[in-house]
Amino acid sequence: MTQDDSRREVIPIYLRVAPGDIALLKFLFESYEEIGLVRTVDRRSAIIVVLAAVDFLDSVRAIIAEVQQKIDCSEIERPADEGDDWLMREID
Asked: Is 8 buried (19+), middle (13-18) or exposed (0-12) by CB count in 10 A?
């Protein structure tokens, strides 16, 4: 976690997954109430963002690491274009 991250309430973690795995990750994180929220950034490119609550960042990273052992899931840099997602504009 960087110094800037420690001042934020939510840390965005961008992931590229197979299109069919987007729903799986959404349901997985929904099952862990309040740990994080998954938003789809680009359906066609299968890019999602996990909005991790700063207090649960280590847990979110552990979940992602476990998921990466089972499905094709890689962390990526923030895309230049996040579309029209109002929530992401509010977070940045």
From this structure: middle
Structure tokens given for 74:
């890689």
What tokens appear for 42 in the block?
């680009």
Identify the CATH class of 3-91: alpha beta
CA distance 75 to 69: 13
pTM, entire model: 0.81
In this predicted model, what pLDDT tens digit does every residue of 37-87 receive, in sequence order? 999 998 888 999 999 999 999 999 999 999 999 999 999 999 887 666 656
The amino acid occupying position 24 is: L
Phi then psi dihedrals of residue 83, to 5 deg: 70, -150
